[in-house]
Write a structure and sequence with these properties.
Blueprint: H1 29-34, E1 40-45, E2 50-55, H2 59-71, H3 84-92, E3 93-94, H4 107-111, H5 115-128, H6 133-141
Antiparallel strand pairs: 1-2, 2-3
Length: 142
């Protein structure tokens, strides 16, 4: 088991794991592909009478969202945001086991739900997955 080269705590990027605490094994392809995608965030939705979960988005999910945002931008820079919240929520909302709740075919129906709830869930997805405008802008350029 190799130990990663140490970086002084003050030089570590924000959110970096402290590798001095416990040595970890080197990962191979199989270990990386078998690793879980991430955590779930429970979000109470009293308007709907229960909880939903926001899942950690995959790189593919984020790329699809960035592309949807890019396609929604008109040549004059305005954004046609119709359905953008629902498109992201369809990819992000899950049950307590992490199973996605909706399919692409549900976007129109989900878009018809109350704006306040959808906006709150959209914000939760963005916050939980660190989807800042800068992060999405960087994806759109690539």
């Amino acid at each position: 088991m190799a130990k990663c080269e140490m970086v002084a705590p003050e030089e570590r990027p924000e959110g970096a794991v402290d590798t001095e605490a416990e040595p970890m094994p080197d990962l191979d392809r199989a270990a990386i592909l078998a690793a879980p995608v991430g955590d779930l965030l429970c979000v109470p939705v009293p308007e709907w009478g229960g909880n939903v979960y926001v899942r950690t988005l995959s790189d593919d999910d984020v790329a699809h969202h960035a592309l949807a945002c890019q396609r929604a931008t008109t040549p004059d820079g305005a954004v046609d945001s119709r359905g953008l919240r629902a498109k992201l929520l369809v990819r992000a909302l899950a049950d307590s086991a992490g199973n996605v709740l909706f399919a692409k075919d549900d976007i129109k129906e989900l878009s018809a739900k109350g704006f306040r709830v959808l906006d709150r869930l959209f914000d939760a997805v963005q916050d939980f997955n660190c989807l800042t405008p800068d992060a999405l802008g960087g994806l759109e350029k690539n």
